[in-house]
């Protein structure tokens, strides 16, 4: 039995997201968000990245979330 080849896009974006299940935002729009909850698709250059649990707290003492960490990464990468 042959296995189906899986593209890089299939690995990074869940089926529901490819079908339009989550909103798409660009980097500027993402950085402008104020404490988003839930899931979304971030478009970076020509790639789409599925992001989940953006309100998850990673550092409780500082109340920093996954969203805060991703914003930091995006700001220092430019």
Helix content: 25-40%
Count of domain modules: 1
Query: Count of helices?
Result: 4
Could you give the order of strands across the largest sheet?
1-2-3
Task: State mean pLDDT (0 to 100 scale).
Answer: 82
Shape: globular
- Beta-strand percentage range: 15-25%
Terminal-residue CA separation: 46 Å
Could you state the order of secondary-structure elements as H and E?
Answer: HHEHEEEEH
Number of E-state strands = 5
Report on the biggest sheet: 3 strands, mixed
Low-confidence stretches: 10-19
The gyration radius over C-alpha positions equals: 15 Å
Q: Give the structural class.
A: alpha+beta
Keywords:
two-stranded antiparallel sheet; alpha+beta; three-stranded mixed beta sheet; 4 helices; single chain; globular; 78 residues
Question: Can you give me a brief rundown of this structure?
Answer:
This protein has 78 residues and is an alpha+beta fold.
Task: Describe what you observe in this structure.
This protein is an alpha+beta fold. It has one domain (21-77). It has four helices and five strands. The strands form two sheets. The chain has a three-stranded mixed β-sheet. A two-stranded antiparallel ribbon has the order 4-5. Helix 3 (27-32) links the parallel strand 1 (24-26) and strand 2. The longest helix is centred in the C-terminal third of the chain and has 12 residues, at 66-77. Mean pLDDT is 82; it is low at 10-19.
